[in-house]
Design brief:
With 151 residues, the protein is an alpha+beta fold. It has a domain at 33-133: Methionyl-tRNA Fmet Formyltransferase, Chain A, domain 2 (Roll). 18% of the residues lie in helices and 26% in strands. It has helices at residues 2-8, 41-50, 141-150; strands spanning 57-61, 64-74, 82-84, 93-96, 99-103, 109-117, 122-124. Strands 1, 2, 3, 4, 5, 6 and 7 form a seven-stranded antiparallel β-sheet that branches. The chain is flat, with a radius of gyration of 24 Å. The protein starts with a helix and ends with a helix. 19% of the residues are buried.
Amino acid sequence: VEAVHLIADGKAPRIPQPKEGATYEGIQKKENAEISWDQPAASLHNWIRGHDKVPGAWTTIDGQVVTFYGSSLFDASVPAGQELAIKGASRPGLVTKNGLVVFGNDGKMVLVRNLQFEDGKMIPASKYFSADETTALELTEEEKKMAEDIR
């Protein structure tokens, strides 16, 4: 009660908090979340997961900023996939059926499941090379009849 009265009267002591021992890092900014590729896979994974969802760890692919989401360490043999050149990476990533596999400087792998482009569009990383393809929906005769009935 005494402390509340001191505050209300404007007489409470103001002691600045010392910086030593402080752990608060403040709000991360997107420009500080760029991925540095010259580190082991575990550090890459920690960086990506540490920035997941906000602000999102990012890199440049084909001249475009791409943000990585949903990483996990990948402890298996190198999977089959289509190579993807990543700016600054010593080795190209692999677009596989499970996602994008990227390599640390220790040769170990990290699997990234989702990618987001500058325009805000998010896709599964496994669909990177098919992101621009659109397929037409083809209905069977029975489905066409049902569509007409619904109309």
